[in-house]
Write a structure and sequence with these properties.
alpha/beta, Aspartate Aminotransferase, domain 2, Aspartate Aminotransferase, domain 1, seven-stranded mixed beta sheet, five-stranded mixed beta sheet, binds pyridoxal-5'-phosphate
């Protein structure tokens, strides 16, 4: 089988294209002709199936080592569909630090359908085991969490899940299939916000659910068709284009993260850096991704530092070519009360970087001038 990087570039092919187009054609049609009554066409209706979407879904399934993949209009639409396999009365054990939107979906939406959850620190296998109830149906977690980059390996949780007849569901958004392939380590369902690394350019909203069991694939297809939040053909084409450079973008992002980490470690204004170590990543994860968080020493004004940055755009999201900066306490996690933020380890001085593919020296220079302005001010005031 071709290497991952080659699969990225040569992935979505439309074998029916009569012109030999080297990129994935966009089929905007929402309805398709029956050759004659009594003969079912390959596609009949856009929501139920679309050649552009199918090509990128097939590529995503192969990249993740799955049997089938389903593409949606956003990561949240993908998560909604994946969680729709459960029934009233079911219970899930979920990671304490899962994406806030997922938490909201579970607490404010699925709770009304009597799907209950217990949130635990999934790094603690005993805590996960203790949270399993007779009606538990799945363990749901993120291998690397936002914004503190806490690492949970798949294999031990998948083993525990299978002992209890549960599914293992992994939101792999923070690593992408280039750095982590949870299905190969025992997960049953892998989800992505493809809005991030997979599309990679802050211009496509998309989500993916990949599975390896044919029966689960059939169930998810029915749900995708029933809920209808499918990825549109033009966006499927853009996602396919973004995927071609996934490995090359991430290689550069990882190199930049290393340079920034080395720089930040030497800064007196920086108290702590959050980024997974090689030991934490273990055998399952090739690297920790392009997100890096750090905490400033008390007295250095994090808001002022963030406001002084020029190259890092003040914005949520991650995984794209441009570097972004955000203050979790005031942006991505602003919904939490100060007490909830403190319990989640999110201090007012915590800054999160989503590192892009710019020249590392320019990113460092930008951070240097922003930190220097506040460090000097701090010294003057003292
Ligand atoms: C880990 C994770 N999962 C899911 C989502 C939701 O994806 P989307 O914004 O594409 O709906 C996000 C968005 O930030 C995320 O970070």
């Amino acid at each position: 089988m071709a290497k991952f990087q080659t699969q990225l570039v040569h992935g979505p092919v439309d074998t029916n294209d009569p012109y030999g187009a080297v990129v994935l054609p966009i089929y905007p049609a929402t309805t398709y002709a029956y050759p004659a009554l009594g003969t079912a066409p390959q596609y009949d209706y856009g929501r139920s199936g679309n050649p552009t979407r199918h090509a990128v879904e097939a590529q995503l399934a192969a990249l993740e080592g799955g049997q089938a993949a389903f593409a949606f209009a956003s990561g949240m639409a993908a998560i909604h569909a994946a969680l729709a396999i459960f029934q009233a009365g079911d219970h899930l054990v979920v990671g304490k630090q899962i994406y806030g939107g997922t938490f909201r979906l579970l607490k404010e939406f699925f709770a009304r359908w009597d799907l209950t959850i217990t949130a635990v620190d999934t790094r603690d296998l005993a805590a996960v085991a203790a949270a399993i109830q007779p009606n538990t149906k799945a363990i749901y977690f993120e291998p690397v969490t936002n914004p503190l980059l806490q690492v949970t390996p798949v294999a031990p949780l998948a083993r525990l899940a299978h002992q209890h007849g549960l599914l293992t569901i992994v939101d792999n958004t923070f690593l992408s299939p280039y750095l982590a392939q949870p299905l190969r380590w025992g997960a049953d369902i892998v989800i992505h916000s493809a809005t991030k690394y997979l599309a990679g350019h802050s211009e496509v909203s998309a989500g993916v659910v990949t599975v390896k069991d044919p029966a689960l694939a059939q169930r998810l297809y029915q749900i995708q068709n029933a809920l209808g939040a499918v990825l549109a053909p033009a966006e499927a084409h853009e996602l396919a284009r973004g995927l071609k450079t996934l490995a090359i973008r991430l290689d550069r992002q990882l190199a930049n993260v290393t340079r920034l980490q080395n720089f930040l470690q030497a800064q007196p204004a920086v108290q702590k850096i959050y980024y997974p170590t090689k030991a934490e990543l273990g055998r399952e994860y090739r690297a920790g991704g392009g997100v890096l968080s750090f905490e400033l020493v008390p007295g250095v004004d994090a808001v002022a530092v963030v406001n002084r940055l020029h190259l890092f755009t003040r914005a949520v999201s991650l995984g794209a070519v441009e570097s972004l900066v955000e203050l979790p306490s005031q942006m991505s996690h602003a919904e939490l009360t100060p007490a909830e933020q403190a319990a989640a380890g999110i201090s007012p001085g915590l800054i999160r970087l989503a590192v892009g593919i710019e020249a590392a020296s320019d990113l460092i220079a930008d951070l240097q001038q922003a930190l220097a302005s506040q460090t000097i001010r701090c010294q003057e005031e003292a």
